[in-house]
Amino acid sequence: MTSPEILGQFIPLHYHYDMLRDNYRMTAFQQAISQTVQPGMTVVDLGGGTGVLSYFAAMAGAKVYYVERNPELVAVAQRFLKMNKVADLVTIVHEDAAQFVPSEPVDVVTCEMLHVGLVREKQTEVIAAFKRNYTEKHGPKLPRFIPEASLLALQPVTQAYEFSGFHAPVPLFQPPVAQMPGTTELGQPALYETVLYDSNFQHEVAWKGVLTMQHAGTLNAWRLVTKNVLAILVEQQTEICWHNQYLVVPLSEPLEVQIGDRVEVEVAYQFCSELTDLWDGIQQRLHVPFGQKKLAA
């Protein structure tokens, strides 16, 4: 089994490089940090990766603590921050982000250990640990967090599972856009959890709800949506958001549905667990009008 230190909170090194090419992610975080961080502030970047969020904060005029436990990423960040001429503003801390406590009060904390449904990476675990350690040392006033919140939702869809004639209902990642070839929406996304990072939050999901079908079709998958509110801009009456990739997971028993059909759904899993725990934790009971039949999986 590969050491989590090598994976860097379960994300291989080359994935960190690939994330730098995600213009949507980069632009959203750059805007959120530039709108939140002011010159003279102190910022902690938990799980700093390649150092890009530390760079954004330093460019906004902040003193920054970059915290990362993966030695390969620490070396990468040191090189990149020096290359971008902000090394004198960023203190490199080679330490587990869940154990780090700054020696002084700070104004803003950035933490991007985000995965769909808040599984696999350690976002909630690290922020909860930081808040406990920080308030014990510096008192109850917390810094501002980027992101400020994550909103989790699921949506009923029809998903095409034909691959060059090969039928294979498998989980699929998608770009975070509403319209995708091969995916047909049967209803609106239903919010099943909201995590506010500056508040106390649960570390597991236990949600029950009823979704009403707005379109007829074959319900054979759920699309999971993870919207991260990076910054709420009160004066501008707006917010800066970034979505993780969508995840489409197949139902074991597809069903033909009509407009107005109701689906009872239960979602139960723990944050920071594996992806399989997320899709295994979705159960549904389908209320089918008389005479309607289930389709073969």
Notes on the protein architecture:
- By secondary structure, the chain is α+β, with helices and mostly antiparallel strands.
- It folds into two domains: 4-146, Rossmann fold (3-Layer(aba) Sandwich), CATH 3.40.50.150; 150-287, Hnrnp arginine n-methyltransferase1 (Distorted Sandwich).
- 23% of the residues lie in helices and 37% in strands.
- The chain has helices at 4-7, 13-19, 23-36, 52-59, 71-83, 123-138, 275-280; strands spanning 42-46, 63-68, 90-94, 108-111, 144-146, 149-159, 162-163, 166-167, 172-174, 183-185, 190-196, 204-212, 217-233, 238-243, 246-257, 262-270, 282-287.
- Strands 6, 9, 10, 11, 13, 14 and 15 form a seven-stranded antiparallel sheet that branches.
- Helix 5 (71-83) links the parallel strand 2 (63-68) and strand 3 (90-94).
- Helix 3 (23-36) packs parallel to helix 4.
- It is elongated.
